[in-house]
Specification:
Elements (H helix, E strand, L loop, with lengths): L2 H11 L5 H11 L3 E4 L5 H7 L5 E5 L2 H11 L4 E5 L12 E6 L3 H4 L3 H14 E11 L6 E2 L8 E5 L2 E12 L3 E11 L5 E11 L3 H9 L3 E9 L8 E8 L2
Parallel strand pairs: 1-2, 1-4, 2-3, 4-5
Antiparallel strand pairs: 5-12, 6-8, 7-8, 8-9, 9-10, 11-12
């Protein structure tokens, strides 16, 4: 497994608070599901193992390769692609998902518009888009000693990711994490990882979606957990 896939699993793989929402929406949609920013398959494989056909898209080839390896006969597959430039040569998806604040990784309204138009083009009439976002966070700085790590051991190597800081300004949410790796011989390596999310409200996303032919169709709430903030899922429907 690639190091990229390992860190994706360490930092995202154990999160499950949103899975009941995606499962509910997939069941209601009664058709194929498009999973944007699919990673190693946290959501796609969960749905596929419950009988839903899922196509994942991710721009990282190593993550796509790992999802396809893990599918093991389940009705899930993934392709390398950019969510801002979707072109899958099919227009029959009943549901398009963008979990884990994918929409907030995009650089402003122009890139969000590209995402929304692409989603609309791949949904069947009556299909639903569901995009998760974080509207607010509590800023904080954590010492390495007090941070609770996400960790995993693979082939004698220990991988741990510790939250160091969450910062907020008018435009961006910054999340800093420390990644520590311990080799089987006990050698320690350290590297900092930074993620920037654009500040975005559900109401703003709903307004922007109208231009792409997607109508607001409600919201779902994902409650916070001990390790993750809560989020809101914006539902959008293609009506024509």
């Amino acid at each position: 497994m690639s190091e990229l896939a390992i860190w994706h699993d360490v930092e995202c793989g154990a999160y499950g608070a949103d899975l009941p929402v995606w499962e509910e929406l997939a069941q209601a949609g009664e058709g194929p599901v498009l999973d944007l920013g699919c990673g190693t398959g946290r959501v796609a494989l969960h749905l596929a193992r419950r009988g839903h056909e899922v196509v994942g898209v991710d721009r990282e080839p190593a993550l796509v390769e790992e999802l396809n390896r893990r599918a093991e006969g389940a009705p899930a597959s993934a392709v390398v692609g950019d969510a801002r430039a979707l072109d899958l040569d099919r227009r029959d998806f009943a549901l398009a998902l963008a979990p884990m604040q994918l929409v907030q990784l995009l650089e402003g309204a122009g890139e969000r518009a590209s995402l929304l138009f692409g989603i609309a083009a791949h949904l069947r009439i009556g299909g639903t888009a569901a995009l998760a976002l974080v509207e607010s966070v509590t800023p904080g700085v954590f010492s390495e000693a007090e941070a609770v790590p996400d960790s995993r051991e693979i082939d004698g190597w220990v991988y741990a990711s510790l939250p160091l800081e969450t910062a907020l300004d008018e435009e961006r949410i910054l999340v800093r994490r420390l990644r520590r790796t311990v080799s089987p011989a006990g050698e320690l390596s350290r590297a900092e990882d930074r993620i920037e999310l654009r500040v975005l409200s559900a109401a703003t996303l709903e307004r922007e979606a109208v231009a792409a032919g997607l109508r607001p169709a409600g919201r779902r709430t994902i409650p916070p957990t001990e390790d993750h903030v809560g989020s809101v899922v914006v539902l959008l429907r293609r009506e024509s």
